[in-house]
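Dear Dr. L.,

I hope this message finds you well. Following up on our conversation about the binding site, I have prepared a predicted three-dimensional model of the protein together with iron/sulfur cluster. For your records, I am including the exact sequence and ligand specification that went into the calculation, followed by the structure tokens. Please feel free to forward this to your student if that is useful.
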Amino acid sequence: MLDNPHATPAPDNFDVTIDGVTVPLTQELLERYDVPGPRYTSYPTAPMWSDDFGAADARRVISASNETGAPLSLYMHLPFCERLCLFCGCNVIVSHKHDKAEPYLATLMRELELLADVVDTSRPVVQFHWGGGTPTYFTPEQLERLFTFTQERFTFADDAEIGVEIDPRVTTDEHLTMLRRVGFNRLSMGVQDFDPAVQEAIRRIQTVEQVGAMVERCRELGFDSVNLDLIYGLPLQTAAGFARTLEHVVALDPDRIAMFSYGHVPWIKKQQRVLTDLLPTHEEKFRIFRTGISHLTNAGYTYVGMDHFARPDDELCVAQRDGTLHRNFQGYTTKAGADLLGAGITSIGQIGHAYTQNRRDVDGWRAAIENDELPCFRGIELNDDDVIRQDAIGEILCHTALDKVEFGRRHGIDVDSYFAESLARLKPLADDGLVTLDDDAIRATPLGRIFLRNIAMAFDAYLDRPSDRPMFSRTL
Ligand SMILES: C[S@@+](CC[C@H](N)C(=O)[O-])C[C@H]1O[C@@H](n2cnc3c(N)ncnc32)[C@H](O)[C@@H]1O
Ligand code: SF4
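The resulting structure of the complex is given below.
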């Protein structure tokens, strides 16, 4: 850890405004609740899935889901990047030469055909997303070909959310124009931090002007929603420097902002090792976090929860107020009840009460597909208890409350007795003012919205296995 001479001295209390209520966020509270824990993009979490679940199971659950006629959400993983950013924790393949792109595309198209053979393709696609890696590593022509191929095999709803992750450094005007023309309406851009010293340390240089020009161009082209990704806890970052980054970001006026905690996992991502000695201290990381929350909420953004901020009139905030917000592997969404199909290496599916995951290596993924098999190598089918807990965690993360009567009716249980152990685990959080445990509901307080992961952990039946915890990053 670096003892940074420029680190900002901070008061013990830092006021943040959540839900219109100003609450003190203390250093002590952050320290107490900064424990290893899942991000709950799934429940049960990925380490609990089984290798016994394979291609035939994936085929069976997808086929059975046709009975429900539920809408579809489609995710495609486009893993390539030209250079590796040192902080990167994503599933990427680094290649300067673009010779692997075309064969990857051909296999992906074949996978889409296999999926289209199993799933009822008249089911409307209400959500579509290209993630990476960097999808705009592919040329505009390649991406258009892939999108057209997909549209020819699936039925897109008129109001489908169609989104893509872009890296401003490699995305051209031709990319943006093509994406908008074929129907993309959402963009997510990686920014991370604008401080030149931080950018140099993480080997990712991009200027405010460069990002600003791209945001402006997206608006001209008529994208409905632009999201910027930030990371707190990066090497050489300070609260004072991050405040300047936030000023630039707010001036760009994005619709949504994601502010992720830097996940430092050098035992998995070897290139991160050189960053270890440059990391801010724990205290400084918390200051950076508090600076982020207070700056963005003071600038008029609503803290939706779990790293995500949005303008109060954004549909995520509207859905949260209406109780229709939903969360899946792609994060928060207004598209509830859709079955998620994943394509490309490592991608995840969530179909009915099952999760599936694709092979992680290109060769294995391709071999399965060439054999006319879905390239699923692990997954899980939820039991009754998993389904109830998955729903409870979803209620906490999306609506920050669990209505005991409504929830009990939905699952045919008495919430107080079914979750007696969870309620006992929540007692210390209630004492710290993070939740209220009332007769009718379990509710996160405005302060507790910052600790939704910790609250959700009380409902997780798998966390008691001590060996499982180190698999997760820390909650803050
Ligand atoms: C696939 S990348 C985004 C698209 C594009 N490749 C880019 O970097 O601009 C998705 C986001 O994951 C986040 N990310 C990557 N590595 C991370 C890490 N180690 N910890 C926290 N967030 C990380 C970054 O904010 C990044 O923008
Ligand atoms: S461009 Fe994005 S996905 Fe690629 S290495 Fe950098 S952060 Fe990771």
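In brief: The pocket of S-adenosylmethionine (ligand 1) is lined by residues 87-90, 131-134, 165, 167, 190, 192, 229, 231, 260, 262-263 (CB under 6 Å).

With kind regards,
A. P.
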